[in-house]
Amino acid sequence: MASPRLETYCCPNRDAATQLVMNFQPEVFCGVCIGSASISLLLTILQLLPKKGQSPRKMPKASSSSTILLLISICDILGGLGMIFRSSVWLGFPGFIANISVVNGTDVWPSTFCVGSAMWIQLLYSAGFWWLFCYAVDSYLVVRRSAGLSTIVLYHMMTWGLAVMLCVEGIALLYYPSLSSCENGLEHAIPHYITTYAPLLLVLVANPILFRRTVSAVASLLKGRQGIYTENERRLGTEIQMRFFKIMLVFVICWSSNIINETLLFYLEMQPDINEMPLKDIRSAALITWIIMGVLNPMQGFLLTLAFYGWTGWRVDLKWRKREIPWESMSSSTVGENAYPSPVNYQSNIHDSKKISTTDSQQTDEAISMLSEGNTSSDERLTRSSPIYQGW
């Protein structure tokens, strides 16, 4: 699981709240993390592999949405691998891990492993949070026709730059002036927790607002495409709205336990003695949410692929096939079949207006298709309602 407590545990003079959760059934907790991360890892890869009997996912050429979705899955996969590796070493070499608690010890490798593995997990999941935020921004810009494949460079700079900067800054402040001196006061720990949870809270607050504005813009696009708002358009708008809802639901389910757990642990840190009897229920709640974090945090990768694409099935097709761009195939086949010679007496301005109208409709269909990528029924319904499909 991804928690700033992982880095805090690397301090030999760690606080009592961190000691409480990290020493609570460590073998069981590491086993839970390995099991959950392994299942999520396998199912996520299975979801992303092409399937037999299914056409490639339909995406327009100038779309950064599919790239962002893939990068989110990659961050979850790499973060899950970090959890599996860290928990496996924790279970397989208990004597090696025990040296972390030694103050002024001569062996630096246990502390190096502790800090390195914790930073790896934290960095990858923080990058995943930033990519989720970029996905919400990109979805809004797409319907406003202000985004394209070129914007992915800006997203890379923002995501990896902010993730690395916040992670390094938080770790530097936590371990200043040395690893053995951290956690002597909250002035070391609080900046680290802020830099860790800032992207998570940003997604929780900003993404619903951006998704809501995107859904409103989609409705306006669908109404303006043909001047009417048919049942197909209404159903397509509802499916896009449901997709955004599923994404936020998965995010809240997987990470709300982290916020609850951190709140409880900070409350315990404020107490003179966390072992007092009146605090028994709070200690129990903190330990329960700690185990829940070990289950839900790694499962984000698989659950997000369900929110993005739905269940794609078990039948994997490992044969390489050329990905077809639907807009090129439609314009070359359906338009070619339904096109008729223009009468000589057609006015050029009428022809130009129809051409512009068709181009605008194509752009609208492409924008909607970016948001409904991975949803076969939506793509088919969009194609049937498209003026290109109707031979306009």
Structure write-up:
With 392 residues, this protein is mainly α. It has a single domain, classed as Rhopdopsin 7-helix transmembrane proteins (Up-down Bundle). 72% of the residues lie in helices and 0% in strands. It contains 13 helices and no strands. It has helices at residues 5-9, 16-22, 26-48, 65-92, 94-98, 109-143, 151-174, 186-226, 231-269, 280-309, 326-338, 348-371, 376-385. The longest helix has 41 residues, at 186-226. The chain is elongated and about 70 Å long. The N and C termini lie far apart (53 Å).
> Count of helical segments?
13
* CATH class category label: Mainly Alpha
Beta strands, count: 0
Shape: elongated
At the fold tier of CATH, the topology name is Rhopdopsin 7-helix transmembrane proteins
Q: In what range is the share of β-strand residues?
A: under 5%
Helix content: over 70%
CATH superfamily: Rhodopsin 7-helix transmembrane proteins
Mean pLDDT: 78
Main pleated sheet = none
Q: What count of structural domains?
A: 1
Based on CA atoms alone, the radius of gyration comes out at 26 Å
| Distance separating the two termini | 53 Å
Overall CATH architecture: Up-down Bundle
The unreliable regions are: 57-62, 322-359, 378-392
Order of helices and strands: HHHHHHHHHHHHH
Structural class: mainly alpha
InterPro entries: GPR143
GO biological process, one term: regulation of calcium-mediated signaling
Subcellular location: Apical cell membrane; Lysosome membrane; Melanosome membrane
Main location: membrane
